[in-house]
Design a protein that fits this description.
This protein is mostly helical and 66 residues long. 91% of the residues lie in helices and 0% in strands. It has one helix at 3-62. It starts with a helix and ends with a helix. The mean pLDDT is 93.
């Protein structure tokens, strides 16, 4: 392998490694975003359930639930 061919090979190899590293970082970011979305959905469901519980308790207390 001559020097120019070797440099081209190493340049291509470095480019491939950089692309793979970028891909891994994007995957991690995507996973973090998905996790955050799921956490927010779960929190929203908990708030909704607590609010419904408060409404039901108020209806029971005022006799509106009969």
């Amino acid at each position: 392998m001559n020097n120019q061919t070797n440099m081209s090979y190493k340049t291509g190899e470095a480019k491939g490694q950089a692309q793979e590293k970028g891909s891994q970082m994007m995957d991690k970011a995507s996973n973090a975003a998905q996790s955050a979305k799921e956490s927010m959905q779960e929190a929203g469901q908990q708030v909704q359930a607590k609010a419904q519980g408060a409404v039901d308790a108020m209806k029971d207390a005022t006799g509106m639930n009969k």
